[in-house]
Amino acid sequence: MFKDIDLFSPDFVIDCSKYNVSKALYKIMKSKKIRSYAYGMCYHKTPLTFDFIKIGLSCPALERKNPKQFGERLVRQAASLKGWNEPYRRSTNGDDLWKNIKRECFPKGILTRSFNKNNLHIAVWDISKRMPNSNVLPENELTAVAWTEGELSGQYKNKFGKLPPINFKDPTKTHAYRDGHIMRSTMDLFEKVS
Questions:
Q1: 53-97 pLDDT, tens per residue?
Q2: 176, 1 Cβ separation under 8 angstroms
Q3: I need a labelling partner for 150 at 20 to 30 A (CA). Which of 11, 59, 107, 164 fits?
Q4: Structural domain contains residue 27
């Protein structure tokens, strides 16, 4: 679908240690006019190398309904980490990142228990800029985002022989990735991805 998607060359990286509040991520994404994207949650494996905790995708249809919420999925997940200078969000909406880190990464020694937002870097691949025009059908944009998540996951699997630790479902097995299938609706896409 896109020839310029490279796991080790995102369009930009957000170093969460540079921000005090998670809402700053909204401003970053809005200033770049990024409606749809794929992302990688990363950490320093050693002082000079990064590794991925998770590769994920945005939900462009949601952002079309609420244009103020560019980067909604990033904020929702990153806000669940400790270290932000704001009250801890007690919503279950997005706390799966933190729960899965505690369940999968701490016991296996992938991350230390002191891991917090200051250790998180978010790699972003901007799909909005890769789409042919801004009037593209939501289904096509969703397919492009799901394909990109599959491509990044496939590149990770080829390099490391496995998915990132909290990617439980394999994005390379979706219809969107395997054949660039255009979904009939947003629900159809998420049923296929799930």
A1: 999 998 755 445 555 567 888 888 999 999 999 876 656 666 888
A2: no
A3: 107
A4: yes
